[in-house]
């Protein structure tokens, strides 16, 4: 790049760091503009608003798109290895937040893919990083990650169960009650098992209602499983952290009342 | 104020304290009248009752309004620093519980703002303070407060997720199935993710139903998070924290009522 | 009573005890008959079945009623202090399970109060008492009882919240969207907050939908509270039970690794 | 059997074991074919797809049926005691996954019982056995099994409660609001108590709505019970059970990897 190294460093400080007033101002502006851009997309989708303020919203969206484009270029320029940013999760999202608007110029009707920029809202978590919010969200993610195998087993079992029960309900109720096909019937089963219960499809035969009752009570029961898993994880996360370290072998995680190292038998201070 | 200091003190004892028979009678009357006032507002909103008993309810409401006004004046007079009460949460609620009725005289049609007095029901918690209910509610609030950062992170993530998923569903289903705009679509997503499932809007296309299933299973899974957070907090609240240390052998974690060290039998101080 | 003491004792053994073959047979028959009686009441309520088998069901119900009456008389006779049984919970339920049928003879149309006999199903818990089911149900009840003050505070707070939010929704939506009165609006709020979501009433205005979203997310969050309370209780119930008793002062609940009594400092064996 | 023992052993290795490349290939193929078979049954139930691709799907299903039949025969042949497999859960499911197709040839219209093969999806758990998924699912099952008596007591209580409340709602609302019979009314009660809330039947009278509110709040409260049970079980599962006792000072509850006593520093055996 033809940019002076000095300028690149300055840009990096503003965009990627938040310690300087300029960096803080940039982060804050970005959050505000992301919010405005999401609000603009939302409002434009409301027919009555589009009729009234369609022109103004259109201009606002173009201003935001240009800003996002400049931001994207700046981000690419400000880092030493631009490809790393470009192919990162946030890099792809940032690109997808601007590109559809330009493509929409060439191929009208695809403009609504701009809605992808709602994903940019996630950047807020990044920007807020230095605050104590991160500790909490990290703990949340850690607890979820640790129980992810169990959650996967649980979810797969639930899906198999829904396929079996959905097929059963299709055989019992049939198209007459709205169970028009097995996929629709599985959709109904998931709606019921998760206790959502839209009511767009409901069993009409006594036997179908009987099986529904069993499904509902089952759903009521198995909601306990993910809750139990995550709760147990949260509690285990919180088990007292003993900071004592053995001076002889550096073993950690001693009992609170340990007098000797469990690993080498050395007396703890 | 021209009121004698003696009278002010007496009034304070009756209104703000509950140790004397007069104070107890005042508190009890207030609870009863608040309940009656809420019931009257409720009943007046029922068309058939308003036709029959509208006149009587109207009189009852005026009596209650006058009582609440007198109570408000008394509360202001009874404390040394009236502004502190006036600008407190309960002071504002107390004022808002009477004012709309008078304003309704000048500007008809605003009378239903009287419904604000439902908030006065919260005063019951205040009045019941000396009972053992407070211990329980304090513990509840303490546990919720301690996990409030995590709950905030969780709720913000859920809302961002709902914006993204709502926009997606708007793009999939569109106005034909009732997803008339992105805000409406987000409303549907929250209705679905929280397992409420009104059924006023439901996906009609197979792909929309497929994405709905994922949203429902997701909602089923993430309901575990706030539950896990609060439960972990409740349990941590309850783990006995005993700071006593044996002076002879340094053993910790004694029972709260321990008189002797469980480890060496030495008398604890 | 003119009954010989011997006969009374025998009757008591059969009805109230389950150690003899006759007692076991009585208990089993009673469970079966209660189930049949509940099934008969259920079936009679189904119009198509009543038309076909109304006569047979009527006879069956009379036979059961006579049996229940004889059982009631026998229970009264078999105990030394009959009033104690008569005014006990089960005594009142047993009477209410027979009486409506006789009253129905005099005042037709009240016959369906016979449905009260569904409550007799609870007797199954009594009859199964000697089995290991009781340990489990006792533990369940104990855990619920211990957190009952907190649950009461929680429920009262939820109800106050529903009154306030219901009134608010009535002011926002009004009768046009089905929020015909404040009580109806509170009904809707509870339907929404508990994530039931019937969909018989749904918000139509954008602002109403916005407030609904907040209510739903709130409901999603506060469902964690009762769960957390009961879970914490269950876990505390289960804390290791140490059976060691001090030989000097009989103190119990020592730490698992206690060497000396926490109460008197006496060496534990 | 006339099969050579050598061939039987080889077959057993392929079908029942997963250590050889052939065994792994067999397992993988089986999973893929089960998925295809379930997908085919699902797709055939969609009217529009059946019209278009009915012929192709029919052929695919016959190929799968023949494969499943061969697999069934191979499984019977490969084990020494075939009856043990035939009467095992998976043996019965495997048979039921093929038989209906043949019976459908003789008696048309029963073809959809082929849907039973959705149950074959459960075999995936078997096939994945050697992976770390099993540890997780075993733990899940163990926790559920240990709390099964309590869950049974809880479910039975909920059902009794639903019978009583359903009968009550039938008496309050009656056929006019859709509560056409007591069984229907019990169906509604379960729909409400489990917070599913279809909305196909909703209370219309003020008193019915009032009782509904109580049922909903009750449902909101008692959902805590299964969650609490399972969570408590999960947490208890995880508390380290270490039976090691120090030979020098009798200290217990050592870390699983402890080599020396935490209390006296004595080497553990």
From TrEMBL, chains A, B, C, D:
<feature type="domain" description="Ion transport">
    <location>
        <begin position="24"/>
        <end position="236"/>
    </location>
</feature>
<protein>
    <submittedName>
        <fullName>Ion transporter</fullName>
    </submittedName>
</protein>
<feature type="transmembrane region" description="Helical">
    <location>
        <begin position="151"/>
        <end position="172"/>
    </location>
</feature>
<feature type="transmembrane region" description="Helical">
    <location>
        <begin position="59"/>
        <end position="79"/>
    </location>
</feature>
<dbReference type="InterPro" id="IPR005821">
    <property type="entry name" value="Ion_trans_dom"/>
</dbReference>
<dbReference type="InterPro" id="IPR027359">
    <property type="entry name" value="Volt_channel_dom_sf"/>
</dbReference>
<keyword id="KW-0406">Ion transport</keyword>
<keyword id="KW-1133">Transmembrane helix</keyword>
<feature type="transmembrane region" description="Helical">
    <location>
        <begin position="99"/>
        <end position="119"/>
    </location>
</feature>
<keyword id="KW-0631">Potassium channel</keyword>
<keyword id="KW-0472">Membrane</keyword>
<keyword id="KW-0630">Potassium</keyword>
<dbReference type="InterPro" id="IPR028325">
    <property type="entry name" value="VG_K_chnl"/>
</dbReference>
<feature type="transmembrane region" description="Helical">
    <location>
        <begin position="28"/>
        <end position="47"/>
    </location>
</feature>
<keyword id="KW-0633">Potassium transport</keyword>
<keyword id="KW-0812">Transmembrane</keyword>
<dbReference type="Pfam" id="PF00520">
    <property type="entry name" value="Ion_trans"/>
</dbReference>
<keyword id="KW-0851">Voltage-gated channel</keyword>
<keyword id="KW-0813">Transport</keyword>
<feature type="transmembrane region" description="Helical">
    <location>
        <begin position="210"/>
        <end position="235"/>
    </location>
</feature>
<keyword id="KW-0407">Ion channel</keyword>
């Amino acid at each position: 790049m033809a940019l002076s190294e000095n300028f690149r460093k300055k840009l990096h400080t503003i965009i990627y760091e938040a310690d300087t007033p300029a960096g803080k101002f940039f982060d804050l502006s970005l959050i505000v503009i992301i919010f405005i851009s999401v609000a603009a997309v939302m409002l434009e989708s409301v027919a009555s608003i589009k009729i009234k303020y369609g022109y103004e919203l259109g201009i606002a969206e173009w201003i935001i798109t240009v800003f996002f484009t400049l931001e994207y270029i700046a981000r690419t320029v400000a880092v030493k290895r631009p490809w790393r940013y470009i192919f990162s999760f946030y890099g792809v999202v940032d690109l997808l937040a601007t590109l559809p608007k330009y493509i929409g110029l060439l191929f009208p009707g695809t403009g609504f893919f701009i809605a992808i920029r709602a994903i940019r809202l996630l950047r807020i978590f990044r920007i807020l990083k230095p605050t104590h919010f991160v500790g909490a969200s990290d703990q949340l993610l850690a607890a979820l990650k640790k129980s992810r195998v169990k959650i996967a087993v649980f979810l797969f079992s639930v899906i198999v169960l829904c396929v079996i029960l959905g097929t059963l309900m299709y055989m019992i109720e049939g198209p007459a009650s709205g169970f028009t096909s097995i996929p629709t019937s599985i959709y109904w089963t998931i709606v019921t098992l998760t206790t959502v219960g839209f009511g767009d499809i409901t069993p009409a035969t006594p036997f179908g209602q009987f099986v529904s009752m069993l499904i509902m009570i089952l759903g009521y029961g198995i909601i306990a499983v993910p809750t139990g898993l995550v709760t147990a994880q949260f509690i285990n996360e919180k088990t007292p952290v003993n900071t004592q370290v053995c001076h002889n072998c550096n073993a950690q995680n001693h009992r609170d009342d340990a007098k000797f190292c469990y690993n080498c038998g050395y007396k703890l201070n």
